[in-house]
Design brief:
Layout (H helix, E strand, L loop, with lengths): L4 E7 L5 E5 L3 E2 L2 E2 L5 H14 L2 E6 L4 E6 L8 E5 L1 E5 L2 E5 L9 E3 L1 H22 L3 H14 L6 H19 L4 H7 L1
Antiparallel strand pairs: 1-2, 1-10, 3-4, 5-6, 6-7, 8-9
Length: 182
């Protein structure tokens, strides 16, 4: 089963679009998934300002992107809808530009996600620090979904460090000052 999370994506500092990710990347770029409604808005935006035409083909349930001759791509791309499970709901998503366009995740969304993870992980750690069996279960679950081996408590510590680093960065601290304080 693919684990998805909701976030926002943009290309080259442009407008951001709400989408989903399974944290797949292509050459370092994000490979987002979008609902039909978001993809239709994207099509309207792109058709107004880009060297391309993007439209939805209802009969085939897919988005078609045609790059014009002035584009470096000068090709046609097709993005068919696929069903995904997100928080118990089945939703149709379209991988517009996945494995092809240079999508970035909105860093503000990453910071919010890290903050939420940090708070949740801290609460779990506090709740179960005396229960070694529960901590072992959390470690097993963590290691099942992530290819590295790290202790749950270590993860909480690292997430808290990242969150603190973001705060220090926002305060205008230099990389050296942030490194010294962590």
């Amino acid at each position: 089963m693919t684990n998805l999370r909701k976030t926002k994506f943009y290309i080259d500092g442009g407008k951001s679009y709400e989408g989903y990710t399974a944290d797949a990347t292509w050459n370092g770029w994000q490979c987002p998934l979008f609902t039909k409604e978001v993809a239709l808005q994207m099509a309207a935006d792109k058709n107004e300002s880009e060297a391309m035409e993007m439209y939805y083909n209802e009969q085939l349930d897919k988005f078609v992107v045609i790059f014009d001759e002035s584009s470096a791509l000068n090709e046609v791309e097709h993005y068919k809808g696929e069903l995904y499970n997100f928080n118990g709901d089945v939703i149709m998503l379209y991988a517009i530009g996945a494995f092809s366009w240079c999508w970035d995740e909105d860093v503000n969304q990453v910071i919010l996600a890290l903050k939420d993870m940090s708070e949740a992980a801290s609460r779990l750690t506090q709740a179960f620090e005396a229960d070694e069996e529960m901590l072992e279960l959390l470690n097993d679950k963590l290691n099942k979904y992530y290819p590295f081996k790290m202790d749950f408590v270590d993860i909480v510590y690292q997430i808290n460090n990242w969150y603190e680093a973001f705060d220090l960065y926002d305060q205008g601290k230099t990389v050296e000052e942030i490194d010294e304080s962590l």
